[in-house]
């Protein structure tokens, strides 16, 4: 964590980027003749802060979803044990055999790629406002009004639950997004119920306490074009997610890195698996037992990476606090104060929390 703090502190002394200089990164990357990273995109990291590879200590936890939902009692008990260990030690895990057809996953990646291939004029229609909870929003970087370094990514975000929203372009986007959002929500619900059980709670404890039926589900697609100097740019810098759990898929290009035991680990999940990570609201709810873990997206010089993250959170008006049942059982005092999920999301996207651990703002 100290290394990240140093990065963040050095980041803050840079003057904010002039928003008029911000550009669509796809257009910039495809402009021709780009041999170096423009200064406003230059993101430097500690040269010793490289990802670990092929180390048995950093083997990625894998959860077989089919055994969680239809396995024998012994098999399910084993999966719950593995899930508990993954949540406690990693905050990240990979889910296989989840039942969502490959054609749904590949179809979603395909229509997202088609969205990013729309003309700039077409995409302007979906830019949204400064409200972080706009039903539909697309753009580049993080927030060009407060960015100190621009990110090597374009994005489109839609709220898909409790009300489903979608751009009306390109053809087929809405239908693919609706099916994908529905299927990922089903998987997320089962996982959240299982996580409840790993905490010794009733399986529906979290969904009831977090008003899951009205919970916020986002669909956030990211486009990272090939970069001429990948070591001098960043797709998304170190951060944690604001919700309860996030499910992610990607095309064949890796780029996700997770911090584990003070080291960065490459997370190269196959395209037909979900990468799942815990968010800040899960850390609050469990009173620090299960942690929301730092992760980042790096870029490459070879090909475009597309990832689709689906954060799932409480309803926006739910005030999230440590679970009283856990506090009583563990004889603990709460280490977080309560805040509505809407206020937390807005805080994370603000200049006040820019490049800082947002969860520290509510730590007692």
TrEMBL record:
A GO term for molecular function: metal ion binding
What keywords does the record list, in alphabetical order? Answer: Iron, Metal-binding, Oxidoreductase, Vitamin C
The answer to whether the entry has keyword Oxidoreductase is yes
Q: Name one Pfam family in it.
A: DIOX_N
| Domain Fe2OG dioxygenase stretches | 214-314
Which family does the record claim for this protein?
Answer: Belongs to the iron/ascorbate-dependent oxidoreductase family.
User: What is this protein's record name?
Assistant: Fe2OG dioxygenase domain-containing protein
């Amino acid at each position: 964590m100290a290394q990240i703090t140093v990065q963040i502190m050095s980041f803050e002394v840079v003057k904010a980027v002039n928003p008029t200089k911000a550009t669509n990164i796809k257009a910039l990357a495809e402009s021709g003749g780009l041999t170096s990273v423009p200064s406003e995109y230059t993101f430097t990291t500690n040269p010793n802060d490289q990802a670990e590879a092929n180390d048995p200590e950093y083997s990625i936890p894998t959860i077989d979803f089919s055994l969680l939902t239809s396995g024998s009692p012994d098999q399910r008990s084993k999966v719950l044990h593995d899930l508990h260990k993954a949540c406690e030690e990693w905050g990240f895990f990979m889910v296989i055999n989840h039942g969502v057809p490959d054609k749904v996953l590949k179809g979603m990646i395909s229509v997202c790629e088609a969205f990013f291939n729309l003309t700039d004029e077409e995409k302007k229609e979906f830019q949204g406002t400064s409200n972080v909870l706009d039903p539909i929003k697309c753009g580049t970087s993080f927030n060009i009004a407060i960015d100190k370094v621009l990110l090597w990514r374009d994005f489109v975000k839609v709220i898909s639950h409790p009300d489903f929203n979608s751009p009306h372009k390109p053809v087929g986007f809405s239908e693919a997004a609706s099916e994908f959002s529905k299927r990922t929500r089903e998987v997320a619900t089962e996982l959240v119920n299982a996580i409840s059980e790993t905490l010794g709670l009733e399986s529906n404890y979290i969904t009831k306490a977090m008003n899951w039926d009205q919970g916020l589900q986002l669909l956030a697609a990211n486009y990272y074009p090939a970069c001429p100097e990948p070591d001098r740019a960043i797709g998304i810098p170190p951060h944690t997610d604001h919700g309860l759990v996030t499910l992610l898929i990607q095309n064949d290009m890796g780029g996700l890195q997770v911090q584990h035991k003070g080291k960065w680990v490459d997370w190269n999940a196959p395209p037909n698996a979900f990468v799942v990570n815990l968010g800040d609201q899960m850390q609050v709810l469990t009173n620090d037992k299960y942690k929301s873990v730092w992760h980042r997206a790096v870029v490459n010089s070879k090909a475009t990476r597309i990832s689709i993250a689906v954060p799932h959170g409480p309803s926006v008006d739910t005030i999230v606090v440590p679970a009283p049942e856990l506090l009583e059982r563990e004889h603990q005092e709460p280490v977080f104060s309560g805040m509505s999920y809407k206020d937390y999301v807005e805080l994370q996207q603000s200049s006040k929390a820019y490049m800082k651990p947002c969860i520290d703002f509510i730590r007692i």
